[in-house]
């Protein structure tokens, strides 16, 4: 049931990005007012970049688990994205993926992802959330501290720009939700009010991104698969990855990434060379037939960081959601989906317990962390194994789990039941526990039902792109053709 707000119940959301606007949508049915406080002076009314979202320049995967959660919170958002040029890409048949175990077959559709720029995804959510009647936003607001004490947060102190210059004021709230991302000052804010010390774990593989956009070749602007060449953590060397994702305006969003010791650079001349040097040159062959239309942008704040607020004696009236609680290496594409599923958990908690009840925040914090925990395990289960990773070394249990996942990945190449289970977990539609079900265990023990593929499965249309001459002749002009 939905608890109808009594009196003037106010929820204050810190941050107006994806996690913040989803939190606003989650709480709107359960409070009289939702106030979003955003540090930027303006929020774009179109799918335009935001100055405090540098990671938006890199390719994003919004898996079906996250997209479905957003649609649940804000019905019609998927149509808004697609109407603005985003793509609904079926999985696994819409993905040409070279895993650590080999090439995946392109089985029939079980899931999907949204192919779009981060700017477009944020715009679609922001437009819907800020249209809710009891949601409003104040821009140009910098949060300087929490108001309250170790037992309860009662609001926030903010600094805004007024006629007299920088003006400080207090905004009262029945609930404060921090969604300010990786740069959150939440630990500092808690210390200022005598709050708890929060357990924090960091696993940092030193991942660096380099991304640019290409104009898709003629005939490849739509209904185009994700091209994804993964790293193999078992090789004992830096992991290097390349992904090509179709986005709006007939463009490909291309991201390279490398762990510590194997990072890409911002040098445009080396961009496609890096793509060619990963475990298979397929992506580079496609890029050689597409036109780059942007500069190369690099980004390096990619450490996995987990703060266990749900285990601490947190003050009532305060919840932390999104990257401020659990930030993830973006290469696995789970940040947006984890935030969306966390917002659904926040909404569902508010449907059971009034947001101004003393126990609400603790219940909500435990609920929102569950999808984030699942994404955390997927990320650190790989990142711990790369050379130079900062953080706890893999335990025996970690090594056994990694061996089992590799076995599943290999089995999935020839077993639809296993690829369905792995994709359930990867797209965040189901928890990782499904990989331990008897049918999956039996399939893993039995092994491949069909042989490994010798190369990527390409359609005639996809192969026809590779059959064209490269647009620019260079040192790789005599490289062998990929595919047939």
Describe this structure in words.
The chain has about 475 residues and is an alpha+beta fold. It has three domains: about 10-55 and about 120-205 and about 300-380, FAD/NAD(P)-binding domain (3-Layer(bba) Sandwich); about 210-300 and about 455-465, Alpha-Beta Plaits (2-Layer Sandwich), CATH 3.30.70; about 390-445, no CATH class. Helices cover about 30% and strands about 25% of the residues. The chain contains 13 helices and 22 strands. The protein has helices at about 20-25, 65-75, 75-85, 120-130, 185-190, 270-275, 280-285, 335-350, 360-385, 395-410, 415-425, 440-445, 460-465, and strands spanning about 10-15, 35, 60-65, 85-90, 95-100, 100-105, 110-115, 135-140, 140-150, 155-160, 165-170, 175-180, 200-205, 210-215, 225-230, 240-245, 250-260, 290, 295-300, 305, 320, 325. The strands form five sheets. Strands 5, 6, 14, 15, 16, 17, 18 and 19 form an eight-stranded mixed sheet that branches. A five-stranded parallel sheet has the order 8-2-1-12-21. It has a three-stranded antiparallel sheet with strand order 3-7-4. A hairpin with a 2-residue loop joins strand 5 and strand 6. Helix 3 packs across helix 4 (about 120-130) and helix 8 runs antiparallel to helix 9 (about 360-385). The longest helix is centred in the C-terminal third of the chain and has 24 residues, at about 360-385. The protein is globular and about 65 Å long. The termini are far apart.
């Amino acid at each position: 049931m939905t608890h109808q707000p009594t009196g003037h119940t106010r929820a204050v959301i810190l941050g107006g990005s994806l996690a913040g606007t989803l939190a606003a949508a989650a709480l709107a049915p359960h409070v009289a007012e939702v106030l979003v406080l955003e540090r930027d002076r303006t929020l774009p009314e179109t799918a335009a970049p935001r100055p405090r979202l540098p990671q938006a320049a890199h390719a994003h995967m919004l898996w079906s688990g996250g997209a479905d959660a957003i649609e649940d919170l804000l019905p019609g958002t998927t149509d808004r994205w697609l109407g603005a040029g985003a793509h609904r890409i079926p999985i696994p048949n819409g993905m040409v993926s070279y895993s650590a175990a080999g090439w995946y077959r392109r089985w029939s559709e079980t899931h999907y992802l949204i192919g779009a720029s981060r700017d477009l995804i944020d715009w679609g959510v922001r437009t819907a959330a800020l249209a809710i009647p009891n949601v409003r936003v104040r821009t140009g607001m910098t949060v300087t501290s929490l108001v309250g004490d170790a037992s309860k947060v009662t609001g926030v102190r903010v600094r805004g720009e007024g006629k007299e210059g920088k003006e400080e004021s207090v905004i009262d709230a029945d609930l404060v939700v921090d969604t300010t991302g990786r740069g959150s000052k939440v630990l500092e804010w808690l210390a200022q009010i005598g709050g708890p010390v929060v357990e924090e774990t960091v696993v940092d593989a030193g991942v660096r991104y380099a991304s640019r956009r290409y104009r898709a070749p003629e005939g490849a602007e739509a209904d185009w698969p994700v091209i994804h060449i993964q790293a193999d953590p078992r090789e004992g060397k830096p992991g290097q990855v390349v992904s090509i994702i179709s986005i709006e305006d007939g463009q490909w969003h291309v991201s390279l990434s490398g762990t510590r010791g194997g990072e890409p650079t911002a040098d445009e001349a080396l961009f496609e060379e890096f793509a060619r040097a990963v475990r298979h040159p397929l992506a580079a062959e496609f890029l050689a037939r597409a036109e780059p239309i942007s500069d190369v942008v690099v980004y390096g704040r990619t450490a996995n960081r987990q703060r266990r607020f749900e285990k601490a004696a947190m003050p009532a009236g305060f919840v932390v959601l999104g990257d401020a609680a659990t930030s993830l290496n973006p290469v696995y594409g789970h940040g947006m989906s984890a935030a969306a599923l966390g917002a659904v958990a926040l909404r569902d908690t508010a449907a059971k317990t009034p947001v101004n009840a003393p126990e609400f925040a603790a219940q909500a914090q435990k609920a929102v962390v569950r999808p984030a925990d699942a994404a955390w395990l997927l990320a650190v289960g790989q990142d711990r194994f790369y050379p130079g990773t900062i953080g706890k070394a893999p335990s025996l249990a970690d090594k056994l789990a990694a061996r089992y996942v590799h076995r599943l990945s290999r089995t999935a190449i020839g077993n639809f039941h296993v690829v369905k289970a792995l994709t359930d977990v990867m797209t965040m539609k189901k928890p990782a526990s499904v990989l331990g079900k008897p049918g999956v265990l039996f399939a893993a023990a039995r092994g491949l039902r069909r042989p490994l593929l010798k190369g990527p499965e390409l359609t005639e249309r996809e192969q026809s792109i590779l059959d064209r001459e490269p647009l620019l002749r260079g040192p790789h002009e005599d490289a062998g053709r990929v595919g047939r």
